[in-house]
Amino acid sequence: MKPILTSLLIILSFSSAAHNNHNQYSSKNHHQAKVTQVPPIYRYVSVQATQPLCHGPNIDNTRQHSTPTIIGGLVGASIGHIVSQRPYKGIGAIAGAVVGSTLALHVSNSSTLGHTSHYWAGQDCVGLPTKTGKKPLLTGYAVTNKYQGHLYQTTRQSKPNKTIRVYH
Predict the structure, then answer these.
(1) pTM, whole model, 2 decimals?
(2) Position 39 pLDDT exceeds 60
């Protein structure tokens, strides 16, 4: 039992000494420095745009989806049937179907709701590089701060606030 207690006391004494050394950057040992400049640092990367080059017959198979028109006709027929009086329910349903499908077709042609698919039949396409350019990539900030009348520079990954901590 004595060797275990002795080992435990030795470990605790070393851990408190290590803890005291670790606290050199504690809140007691830092001051605030005013940030004066924060220009961004960019790294430029090469980007390449491609353009498809296709071989084969150029047949445009444009297809307009008819789903909105059918649904509009069904909804219109249901509403026409519901609002019509008893002897005219069939005529009301037909009129509602015509009005509903016409409205749905108009809405689908004039908005992004009507999806048009373009595909080219029988073509083999490859992407050809057209131009190479440079695109800026933000990598950090060059921070200039003022502490006790002197200017200091450092870099950071994130943009700092108006003041930063400096340790002495």
Answers:
(1) 0.39
(2) yes
